[in-house]
Design goal:
The chain is an alpha+beta fold. The protein has a domain at 34-146: Alpha-Beta Complex (Ribosomal Protein L22, Chain A). It is built from 7 helices and 7 strands, in the order αβαααββββααββα. The chain has helices at 2-32, 48-58, 63-71, 78-96, 152-160, 168-181, 195-200, and strands at 36-44, 103-112, 116-121, 127-132, 135-143, 186-187, 190-191. Strands 1-5-2 form a 3-stranded antiparallel beta sheet. A two-stranded antiparallel sheet has the order 3-4. A two-stranded antiparallel ribbon has the order 6-7. It is flat.
Length: 205
Amino acid sequence: MESKKIKKLNINDKNKDVFKSKKKEDLKKSLKDISEVVAKARFIKISPRKSRLIVSQVRGMNTQAALDYLKFANKAAVRPIVKLINSAIANAGNNFQIDKEDLYIKKIVANDGPVIKRWRPRAHGRATMIRKRTSHIDLVLGVKSGSKQKSNKDKKEGKKNEVKLVRPEEIKKEALKISGKNSGNVKGGKESKGFLKGVFQRKTG
């Protein structure tokens, strides 16, 4: 009975390997056919009318050119739209290994979200409604024709340029060494005490 169980397990393992290899092949095929990258921002607390002022200006631009333009646009909707564009660029880079330079804004739409209703007091004991509108922004980045995916070499080069984490203890030690080298009046390995140091080091009481 034990031998039969072992055989069944082996067959399942083989099937798993085949399934994984098929999945990888499908992914490789799909990466070649990619023409769009999607990102969405939901329930942004700004009216769609205000966000459309920026959306209409950015549509059809290259991603980098759009980000440069938004740096100088003095509107409330700039911040969430910049965040959304950066999110879409990150999606393209992480999921499909597409360069930032090969992307452009193919479609960007600001739709109505749910309206938050609040009340304000008016004369003669009446109340009027305040409608706080929200918007849903949908972004589709297009991929330029002739663009190539990032290779493994690019990834390795990116890892080389990463910042290394340093412990605070090591930083303190280095700072102490530097301060010891660049200290002022040193006589026989000991710092010469000035007049003020002598005053402040006296014990009172």
